[in-house]
Amino acid sequence: MTESQEAMPTLEGSLTSVPATILKLLNITPPTNIPQPIQPVVDLFASKGVDRIIINVLDSFGLFEITYYKPQFLISKANALVLLSTKNPYTLGMFHQMFFGGFDYEPNGFHLLRYIQENKKSSVFVGRQKDIKRYDGGTPSIAKSTDMATWIEAAKVINRHHLSILHWLDFEELYNKRKRTGINTPEELTQKLIKRTDKWILSQFKQLRSKSLMLVIGNHGRNKIDLNYNGKIAELRSASVPLAICLYKK
């Protein structure tokens, strides 16, 4: 472990507090009917100035994958690692908490993306069509079905909006294939996918203008999947929690 890694703070917060945290960092006053922001994250980045936030959502990616596969860029350049506690760590549960601040549907009319638009800031949601239909709340969105298409679209949108949410799908597809076929995915294939995504996120980070905050948020995937790990690895995987990796572009 390098000195920079040792200095990287590990913070804790609730997934339901992510909406208020995003709003606070964008200098928007959160409504009082959603959970309070993760204050250590606000304290760490608000003073630097945040003009835009880019959220990369990775399915079936969490603390275990960071620890076991060690994606080089994410580990070496992260400013903070936030462990996100939640009663529902899966994809749709994560989106529900991220957009509504809880498990109710639009509590008292709150929807993160609409609230941002109402406060004269812009947003875009790039992801799977059925997720967009369920969660974009009528705000600007772009449907993409492959990671390559998402990566290309990211270059067009990340510097144009105050909040860009990009949902990457290949991790989930990898594990879904394993579930359908019953054949274990070779570990090197998972490693290759993580390495590729790490490089793509690095490329995306280089394109960002200054005063940008990137959050890489991982969850447990769309459904619970038995990955057939053994021994210590199985223990680590079962204890894995959703997380947010924070990277600030000066």
UniProtKB/TrEMBL annotation:
<dbReference type="InterPro" id="IPR017850">
    <property type="entry name" value="Alkaline_phosphatase_core_sf"/>
</dbReference>
<protein>
    <recommendedName>
        <fullName>Type I phosphodiesterase / nucleotide pyrophosphatase</fullName>
    </recommendedName>
</protein>
